[in-house]
Amino acid sequence: MSQPRKPRYRTSNWKQYNASLKARGSLTVWLDKGMCWFATASGKRGRSRKFSDAAIQFCLTLKNLFGLALRQTTGLAESVLHLCGLAWPVPDFSTLCRRQLDLNVQVPYTRSQAGLHLLVDSTGIKFLGEGEWKCKKHGPERRRQWRKLHIGIDAQTLQVRAICVTS
């Protein structure tokens, strides 16, 4: 028995439809010109850092957002800064690689006025696992590692308030 055909919706307003398709591909980036792009002197011995944590975090955010390699990230950051009309230098990939290991990211949150209603959820994450077809064919590997991720979310603002990873 054949299945019924799916209903087909005809586009009646092509101008609006084309504008909506164009809007899907638009990219808006806000950069504060007062942002501290260069690092301040630490006062310690040795050469101080050239770029601030905000500059490194900006580049790594682009990296994670678009799923790029570090060298591609530097190219994208250069073009974004050029389009914004800013003549700031961009950290090279080795600086990004080195600084991403010890970068302290400050996640802003709004303090709740009343009591906090915390929603807690847990899920398992598999590390070092191959595809399921390999496990079916050759049997499960002994090195499979699972971690449990616990997330606490504020019920009012839906902001992540706590994260804990356990074995």
How would you describe this structure to a colleague?
It is a single chain. This protein is α+β, with helices and mostly antiparallel strands and 167 residues long. Helix content is 32%, strand content 16%. The protein contains five helices and three strands. The chain has helices at 14-24, 53-66, 70-83, 93-99, 132-138, and strands at residues 118-127, 145-154, 160-166. Helix 2 crosses helix 3 (70-83) and helix 3 packs across helix 4 (93-99). The protein is extended. The N and C termini lie far apart (51 Å).
Strand content: 15-25%
**Span between N and C termini?**
51 Å
Q: What gyration radius follows from the Cα positions, in whole Å? A: 24 Å
Lateral strand order in the biggest sheet:
1-2-3
Protein name: IS5 family transposase
Organism: Comamonas aquatica
InterPro entries: Tn903_transposase (IPR053172), Tnp_DDE_dom (IPR025668), Transposase_Tn903 (IPR053520)
Could you provide a short overview of the structure?
By secondary structure, the chain is an alpha+beta fold. Helices cover 32% and strands 16% of the residues. It folds into two domains: 30-99, no CATH class; 118-166, no CATH class.
